[in-house]
Specification:
The protein is an all-alpha fold. The chain has a single domain, classed as MetI-like (MetI-like fold, Orthogonal Bundle). It is built from 14 helices and 2 strands; from the N terminus they run H-H-H-E-E-H-H-H-H-H-H-H-H-H-H-H. It has a two-stranded antiparallel ribbon with strand order 1-2. A hairpin with a 5-residue loop joins strand 1 and strand 2. The longest helix is centred in the middle third of the chain and has 37 residues. The two termini are 37 Å apart.
Length: 309
């Protein structure tokens, strides 16, 4: 019995000692400060998050307020009541800056919520598939193969046409579209860990399946899941922008970066450059930030890099 307890203690615990947490936190801070590109990505993400939270307070105007007399005003042009269109106005006379600030909240919400939905479904499916194997594994993986056989954007369009556009619907569609990525990674990791000594020891100690999956195996595979999630947030934001560009995103009354790009397409060949440049730049910077952070996380969570930190 003492040998079993020793084996369990060697596994990754659910709650690490405070001193160990502090050392890992300090190592993360040092690694982040010495990685120039990751620090730039973190700064960009902090700014975007701040804008998403306080966008309504920062916006100089109502993002849906129309003023046809002041439509397509250039950046810095005069707005209503002695105000200024700092980033210009669109074809309905709405302030581009205000719509840009409001759109940050939707883009981040969709990106993070969709990853949470897809990651949760995929992680549970991967744990069950990898641990039990057999026909359960075959059913889950074949469902994933069926989904991968179709281009994701076509499936998303089909479901949104049936379900209708909306914030909740687009989060569900984008989240369900991501589950197989997490399921395959978790399945492979679970299959390699289920025969490890500390898992066998947990079974011998009488732990149930739930405890083994979520308290013994899952903590040991969080590193690759975190990296994949950081990269997938960027892809989900791009998918939301693409669906909004096609008119299948959130309702037209809700400003998003994708819908702003969609509305600017009639003016792409004219000199109204600000209609597409500013929302496009916001998407590029946000996606770049998540990719830079994901690249840093990949190196930071690599066990081979811990001795060098």
């Amino acid at each position: 019995m003492s040998d079993i307890k020793t084996t369990i203690d060697r596994a990754v615990p659910m709650s690490k000692p405070v001193s160990l947490r502090r050392r890992e936190f300090n190592r993360a801070v040092r690694s982040l400060l010495t990685s120039r590109w990751a620090l730039i990505g973190m700064i960009i993400l902090f700014v975007v998050t701040f804008i998403a939270i306080f966008g309504p307070q920062l916006a100089p105007m109502d993002p849906n307020r129309q003023n046809i007399m002041l439509r397509l005003a250039e950046p810095g042009g005069a707005g209503p009541r002695n105000s200024v269109f700092w980033l210009g106005s669109d074809q309905l006379g709405r302030d581009v800056l205000s719509r840009l600030l409001y759109g940050a909240r939707v883009s981040l919400l969709v990106g993070i919520a969709a990853i949470a939905v897809g990651g949760t479904i995929g992680t549970i499916a991967g744990l069950v598939s990898g641990y039990f194997g057999g026909w359960i594994d075959d059913v889950i993986m074949r469902l994933g193969d069926i989904q991968l056989a179709f281009p994701f954007i076509l499936l998303a369009i089909m479901f949104l046409v049936v379900m209708g556009p909306g914030l909740v619907n687009i989060i569900l569609v984008l989240g369900i579209g991501q589950w197989i990525t997490y399921a395959r990674i978790v399945r492979a990791q679970t299959m390699s860990l289920r025969e490890k000594e500390y898992v066998e020891a947990a079974r011998a100690m009488g732990d149930g399946v739930f405890s083994i999956l979520f308290r013994t195996i899952l903590p040991n595979i969080m590193a690759p899941l975190t990296v994949i999630a950081s990269f997938n947030v960027a892809g989900v934001i791009l998918s939301e922008a693409a669906l909004s560009f096609l008119g299948l995103g959130v309702p037209p009354s809700v400003p998003t970066w994708g819908s702003m790009l969609s509305e600017s397409r009639d003016h792409l060949l004219s000199n109204k450059w600000w209609l597409a440049v500013f929302p496009g730049l916001a998407i590029v910077l946000t996606v770049l930030a998540f990719n830079l952070i994901g690249d840093w996380l990949r190196d930071f969570l690599d066990p081979r890099m811990k001795d060098k930190a």
